[in-house]
Amino acid sequence: MPDAYAGPGLELALTLRVLTSQQGNGIPVHADLDGRDEPLILDLPPGDRTPARFIGDATTLVRLSAGRPVTGVRHELSGAKAAELNLFGG
Rounded to an integer, what distance in angstroms lies between the CA atom of residue 73 and that of residue 19? Predict the structure, then answer.
């Protein structure tokens, strides 16, 4: 199901990701999402870590946040490893 993360729940998933980040879960991320004018700022840094930078589509960010594979999907991630975006450990 390549479009499993692109359904009507995508906006809710992004909102949940932002709310989770405001609880201090995860690492700081500055996400430039395709088709959006404003970046999504996740996990505002409480300390010295420079925010990671994600460039790609929203579905890929949600997949990374859920620990799902993104093999073959065009995106850019700098300043962090994909596993660090996984909110569920693993």
Answer: 25
Q: Is residue 48 part of a domain?
A: yes
Q: How many domains does the chain have?
A: 1
pTM: 0.88
Query: Could you tell me if 77 and 57 are in contact, meaning their C-beta atoms sit under 8 angstroms apart?
Result: no
Owning domain of residue 63: 10-85
Residue 30, beta-bridge partner list: 41, 53
Kindly give the pairing relationship between strand 76-78 and strand 29-33.
Answer: unpaired
Q: What's the pLDDT tens digit per position in 21-43?
A: 888 778 889 999 999 999 998 87
